[in-house]
Design a protein that fits this description.
- There is one protein chain.
- By secondary structure, this protein is mainly alpha-helical.
- It has one domain.
- The chain has 16 helices and no strands.
- It has helices at about 1-20, 30-50, 50-80, 100-105, 105-120, 125-140, 145-150, 175-185, 190-200, 205-230, 250-300, 305-320, 325-355, 365-375, 380-390, 395-425.
- Helix 8 runs antiparallel to helix 10 and helix 9 (about 190-200) packs across helix 10 (about 205-230).
- The longest helix has about 50 residues, at about 250-300.
- The radius of gyration is 21 Å and the shape is globular.
Length: about 425
């Protein structure tokens, strides 16, 4: 009961923090906020409490893991022993060389991207996306364009903006903020393989939780966006449902090829970002430590002067709000905070390293942290989404650039809100932990 009370207080505190930075507090649409929170709670109740929902969750988890196993078939054929995960021995007797992200996690992105392409070709993705978009539009009374984009971003990344391409140039600033926020608060299904590979040994049901987190984060993104940047205009598609703009391939094979090519571009982009950002962060850490060590010695302090440490101190209060106990909060805060700087991939890897180190982390904290990290809410993603959406509607690039930081804050708070919801309903002994 204490977790429930503190959890709901945490939700209120996160929304209050967003309200403090709102650009127009007087016109906030509380219907959007009320229905957004209700949708999150209802979905969480169904997954975590209702027996039928729990069974569906576990089925989804098993399906995703089996699909990931299928994805590994091509990886093993191409990379051989390098593709074997830690502790695995193949049929020929070859043993794993340990976890190597480039050869075990990243290739699966290509497979998942191709799979999504096939699902689009046969209309499966469009059906599911339109279902979520209908719920958002009718209950939350937001525009059909931003509902469709937010629903699409539950499953795909920046390419979701293509679904509303003809409408972007006429969207209000609040709508633009929402599509940026939803993009950064959720993750694409193509990335699930990376996170699963990193945590599945310590967190067997992570696949189901990743799906759950991405779904929960969509209404959370709408909530935080509409608090930070409320609607002051008249959206063209307000309260109406629209069909996604989609250029269908000629046949399934073309869909596979195009999807795989998208996956390759995604892998190259991720590698480039990691190489650049991790190198820059390492350089900044050296500069901070150079000046920080004398300060520690002079005043007898023990401050972590790395960028990850400093951001962790800022994230610490939010970690407590999400429900992480004080005894575990500081290292978790550093990991969650680092996501903003060095991407969620590195943050998940740091989390995996923490768990494998033997550190005492409770099952509930593992769930909260996973939900908090499941999002593209980082600086690199901000540039990708602003640039990507701006490329579809160059005349709105100025507005998108001005809204970028506000959307990043909204996306970060949305991820925290999703983690808080998960912490309320999922207890340490739950079957959903595995």
């Amino acid at each position: 009961m204490l977790n429930v009370i503190t959890g709901f207080l945490g939700i209120l505190m996160l929304m209050l923090f967003a309200w403090l930075f709102s650009n127009n507090r007087r016109v906030i649409n509380w219907r959007v906020i009320g229905w957004g929170v209700s949708l999150q709670i209802l979905f969480a109740l169904f997954i975590f409490v209702v027996p039928a929902g729990t069974k569906i969750f576990l089925v989804i988890n098993d399906i995703v893991l089996k699909v990931l196993d299928c994805a590994m078939a091509g990886t093993k054929f191409v990379f051989g022993r390098l593709a074997l995960g830690p502790g695995i021995t193949d049929e020929s007797g070859q043993t794993s060389l340990g976890f190597i992200m480039a050869f075990q996690a990243f290739p699966s992105i290509v497979f998942f991207a191709a799979l999504v392409g096939v699902l689009y070709y046969f209309g499966v993705m469009q059906f599911v996306i339109k279902l979520f978009a209908y719920v958002f539009t009718k209950l939350m009374r937001i525009s059909g364009a931003e509902s469709l984009c937010a629903a699409s971003e539950i499953f795909v990344g920046i390419e979701s903006a293509v679904a509303i391409r003809p409408l972007i140039k006429k969207m209000t600033r609040s709508e633009l903020c929402t599509i940026l926020t939803a993009g950064m608060a959720t993750v694409s299904s193509s990335m699930f393989a990376v996170y699963i590979m990193l945590l599945k040994d310590k967190f067997p049901t992570i696949a189901g939780h990743l799906v759950s987190a991405s779904i929960l984060s969509a209404p959370a993104a709408i909530i935080m966006s509409k608090i930070l940047c409320p609607e002051t205009g008249q959206p063209e598609t307000l309260g109406t449902t629209i069909k996604p703009f989609y250029e269908k391939e000629n046949n399934p094979f073309e869909a596979i090829i195009n999807g795989a090519n998208v996956g390759v571009k995604l892998v190259v982009g991720i590698v480039a970002l990691l190489l650049a950002f991790l190198g820059i962060v390492a350089l900044i850490d050296q500069i901070l430590l150079f000046f920080g060590h004398p300060v520690n010695n002079l005043f007898g302090m023990n401050v972590d002067w790395t960028l990850k440490g400093l951001v962790g101190y800022l994230t610490y209060p939010f970690t407590l709000i999400m429900g992480v106990p004080i005894s575990e909060a500081l290292p978790i805060a550093k990991i969650i905070g680092s996501r903003t700087i060095v991407t969620e991939v590195t943050a998940f890897q740091s989390f995996s390293t923490l768990l494998n180190s033997g550190a005492v982390v409770s099952p509930r904290t593992i769930i909260i942290t996973t939900y908090a990290l499941t999002g593209f809410a980082h600086v690199a993603s901000l540039a990708i989404f602003v640039g990507g959406v701006g490329a579809l509607a160059p005349e709105r690039l100025k507005d998108l650039s001005q809204l970028g930081l506000r959307a990043l804050l909204a996306a970060t708070l949305a991820c925290f809100m999703t983690a808080t919801i998960a912490g309320i309903f999922c207890q340490g002994g739950s079957i959903l932990f595995g």
